[in-house]
Structures are given as structure tokens and as C-alpha cells.
Design goal:
With 141 residues, the chain is an alpha+beta fold. A hairpin with a 2-residue loop joins strand 1 and strand 2 (37-41). Helix 1 packs across helix 4 (80-93) and helix 4 (80-93) crosses helix 6. 31% of the residues are buried. It is globular, with a radius of gyration of 15 Å. Strands 1-2-4-3 form a four-stranded mixed beta sheet, with helices on both faces. The protein starts with a helix and ends in a 7-residue tail after the last helix. It has helices at residues 2-26, 43-51, 73-78, 80-93, 97-110, 120-134; strands at residues 30-34, 37-41, 61-64, 67-70. Bound molecules: zinc ion. The site of zinc ion (ZN) has 4 residues, from helix 4 and helix 6.
Length: 141
Amino acid sequence: MLRFWLYLWALPVTLVGVLLGLLARSSGGSLQRVEGVLEIAGGWPASILRRGFPFSGPVAAITLGHVVLGVSLAALSATRAHERAHVRQFERWGVLLLVLYPLAGLLAWLRGGNPYRDNPFESEARAAERVERVTPQNSGD
Ligand SMILES: [Zn+2]
């Protein structure tokens, strides 16, 4: 029952991701569902990710609620632990994360840091990557 509320809480952002997923699908991208998350590889959104964003530069993947958009299937696989941390952040903060994330980046920048690298939401996702490297989950069976 809790899972239902987590999906509902993140739904407004997930719907934006689904819309981008449909654009990706109509421009050659592929969709797959992995552990309750819709992963979208390639297509038009991938060109945006490759071009990058002002503070991060090019990125391999981005999370919007329960949707992860990646430049390729390999990129989705390589960034899965990191992006799942962002999924959990959307489950915790819902649509508020769309405001909190840039605010956290702004605070990091005001403190002399990098708005992307020193953003606490990114630090948490990188920590999840490290845990995954130390204790990989068995996803094969
Ligand atoms: Zn991240």
C-alpha cells in the first residue's frame, strides 16, 4: 500500500517523464520497465542529455519521478544505482524536489561549491553508487 502512495506522490513529475518518454519513443528511443521504474533510452531526449545542462554538462541519464531517461541502454544500466537514489528522492519529496534540487544547488554555489557536484541530492546519489559497488544486488535471478 505504501508503494501506491509513493507512486502517487511522485506522479506529477512522473507524468512529465512519461511525456518525454513518448517523445523519445516516437523519435527512435526504446522503453523498458525495470524494478517498477520506466527507463527510456535514446530518441530525441537523449540528444538533450548529450548536449547537457548549464551546471552539469552532458549527462548519461536523468530521473523524473519514476521515469529515467538515458542516452542509451548501456548508460541506463551503468547509472542505475545513482538514478534509483533520485527516484527515492522523488518518492520522499514529490514535486517539491523540482524546487528543492535547484535551491540546494544554489546554496552549494553560494558556499563556493559547484551547484551540481556539491548539491546534497547528488552527493546522496553518488553515495548510493558507492554502496552498490561494494554490495552489488543480484538482479539476475
Ligand atoms: Zn544525479
